[in-house]
Amino acid sequence: MVDPRLSIIDERIREVSRIVAVSSGKGGVGKSLAAATLALKLTKMGYTVGLFDLDFTSPSTHVILGIADLQPKEDRGIVPPMAHGMKYMSIIYYSGEYATPLRGADVSNVLIELLSITRWAKLDFLIIDMPPGIGDATLDLIRLVKDIEFLIVTTPSQLAFETVRKLVSLLKELKIPVIGVIENMKTHKSDTIRQQTRKLDVKFLGEIPYDARIEESIGSAHRLSKTIFAEKVGEIALRIQ
Amino acid sequence: MHEWALAEAVIAAASEIAEKEGLSEVTEVKIKVGELQQIELDILEFALSQLKSAKLENARFSIGLSKAEIKCRVCEHKWILATGNLDKVTAEAIHFVPEIAHTYIKCPKCGSPDFEVLSGRGVWLESIRGVKREDG
Ligand SMILES: Nc1ncnc2c1ncn2[C@@H]1O[C@H](COP(=O)(O)OP(=O)(O)OP(=O)(O)O)[C@@H](O)[C@H]1O
Ligand SMILES: [Mg+2]
Ligand SMILES: [Zn+2]
């Protein structure tokens, strides 16, 4: 038995110029916040952007951007609706406010289903908010999405960077492009992560300070885009375009 | 119309296999459709007939159904999900993403959402038959 969905994924992303997975070996480092803000910034810069929340068991980009009451259109598949000027896709369209307890094989299946039915059409960037770690979502993207690129988020903590080191070495071994590393939640001056990143022969894209007031901006794309966080992500966006 | 998206996938997969096996013409495509996703068969058939490529022009699409058989991982209870009884919102969510079953459906014995769909998920290409290319 052949899974026919695998044969249509290429076609579904044929007109997408760049697919960027915002990823980390570690959880809670700011992937979702960075992915959502990066998508906003690229949109502001005039690019056609899609944002795809791939954290199926704990989606959060809709919370960050204050997206509610949105539903995709159906037209020979799913046409992602527009939110804040970008095409937005998340499992929340189907799971709503309820929990979605999924095992690995189920995560894979959801990923394949959504990749095979979502019509992104023409995009300059498809930004993907990844779940933490090197699990099913990471392996499936590498397997199914050719030309995928990874943007990696870490914190100043060695605990986070150690997992990033592993992720980077895996991606390099598989010859998957790594755009670079962002150091998030910086509380004091230090060059450690910058130097360690360069030792991995990966671009250091910039640092984002810890911002105790970021919580006040959660739920409003407008407020979020006025934060230092967004300013720094904007500088990073210029560097990766 | 999920059926159209899936029909497109079936045609792409069948064409790919025909190419790999050196078939000049495909005569039959066997498809298995799981009941969990509540695919509308007449729409699927219509979509297949509209989307088929030249090589599949004379192909017969035979569609078999498989029941949504589910097994609870906690208490091992097995049951067949009668999708006809689902409310509209649940049915539609599962139609688009069958794994959403884990959001809305619980084991009727123990109440757990931790179950395995043994069969009846999605659309599968079972086999294709055709005429080999002369030069192959
Ligand atoms: N620069 C920052 N300053 C202050 N708080 C931040 C910063 N970056 C992220 N946060 C906060 O840290 C928390 C985790 O962020 P986020 O959810 O984006 O991380 P994540 O890597 O996506 O987590 P997960 O691995 O669970 O998906 C959130 O509450 C977020 O608001
Ligand atoms: Mg996240
Ligand atoms: Zn049970």
Main features:
heterodimer; A: 241 residues; alpha/beta; Rossmann fold; 8-stranded mixed β-sheet; globular; B: 136 residues; alpha+beta; hypothetical protein PF0899 fold; 2 domains; 3-stranded antiparallel β-sheet; binds magnesium ion; binds zinc ion
How would you describe this structure to a colleague?
By secondary structure, chain A is of the alpha/beta class. Chain A has one domain (5-239): P-loop containing nucleotide triphosphate hydrolases (Rossmann fold, 3-Layer(aba) Sandwich), CATH 3.40.50. Chain A is 38% helix and 22% strand. Chain A has helices spanning 9-12, 31-44, 61-65, 92-95, 104-117, 136-144, 158-173, 192-199, 221-224, 228-240; strands at residues 16-23, 49-53, 73-74, 78-79, 82-83, 86-89, 123-129, 148-154, 178-186, 204-209. In chain A, the strands form two sheets. Chain A has an eight-stranded mixed β-sheet with strand order 5-6-2-7-1-8-9-10, sandwiched between helices. In chain A, helix 2 (31-44) crosses helix 10 (228-240) and helix 5 packs parallel to helix 6. The radius of gyration of chain A is 17 Å and the shape is globular. The model of chain A has no long low-confidence stretch (mean pLDDT 97). The termini of chain B are far apart. Chain B folds into two domains: 2-67 and 120-131, hypothetical protein PF0899 fold; 69-118, no CATH class. Helix content of chain B is 32%, strand content 30%. Chain B has four helices and six strands. The longest helix of chain B is centred in the first third of the chain and has 19 residues, at 2-20. In chain B, strand 3 and strand 4 (78-80) form a beta hairpin. Chain B is an alpha+beta fold and 136 residues long. In chain B, the strands form two sheets. Chain B has a three-stranded mixed β-sheet with strand order 2-1-6, with helices on one face. At the A-B interface, helix 4 and helix 5 of A face helix 1, helix 4 and strand 6 of B.
